[in-house]
Amino acid sequence: RRLYFDTHALVCLLEENGFTTQQSEVIVSALVKIMNTNLDMIYKDMVTKVQQEIALQQIMSHIGGVKKDMIILEKSEFSALRSENEKIKLELQQIKKQVMDEITKVRADNKLNLNLEKSRVKELHAQQDRALTQTDRKIDTEVADLKTMLESHKLDNIKYLAGSVFTCLTVALGFYRLWI
């Protein structure tokens, strides 16, 4: 196996840092064993180029078979599915058109009903306004009549009061002349 670092240089470096030659060689030997063990573990999981090429060829042939099967399926079953899909699309378009027609009818009916209700409400408001105007007129007439009657009674009361005052004055003057 090839090592990708200089083991002798590592031994020298360890010796320079205070290790003995035997300790340095043991440490480097242990490192080499650890690296070899790790490489063995890695190589077990790896494939060679030849194995990789064989697997690639097998996958490519399998893909080619699947492509052929897909072409055959596309020609037979997919064409049936496409025609069925087209039928469903046409049916959906017809249903959509029917639904849109129904929605248009419902909207028109609702608009008509709404306009009828609006006109009924307007007529009702107009009737209420007329009745209210008539009631206001009657009230105004009654109030005016009451004011006229009140003024008339007021004048009558003033007449009677004036008559009573003059009568009392006349009687008082009569008694005054009698005593004088």
TrEMBL record:
It comes from Poecile atricapillus. The keyword Cell wall biogenesis/degradation does not apply. It is found in: Mitochondrion membrane. Pfam families: CCDC90-like. GO terms for biological process: calcium import into the mitochondrion; positive regulation of mitochondrial calcium ion concentration. This is MCUR1 regulator. GO terms for cellular component: mitochondrial inner membrane. The chain crosses the membrane at residues 160-179. Gene3D superfamilies: 1.20.5.340. Keywords: Coiled coil, Membrane, Mitochondrion, Transmembrane, Transmembrane helix. InterPro entries: CCDC90-like. PANTHER family: MITOCHONDRIAL CALCIUM UNIPORTER REGULATOR 1, PROTEIN FMP32, MITOCHONDRIAL. Belongs to the CCDC90 family.
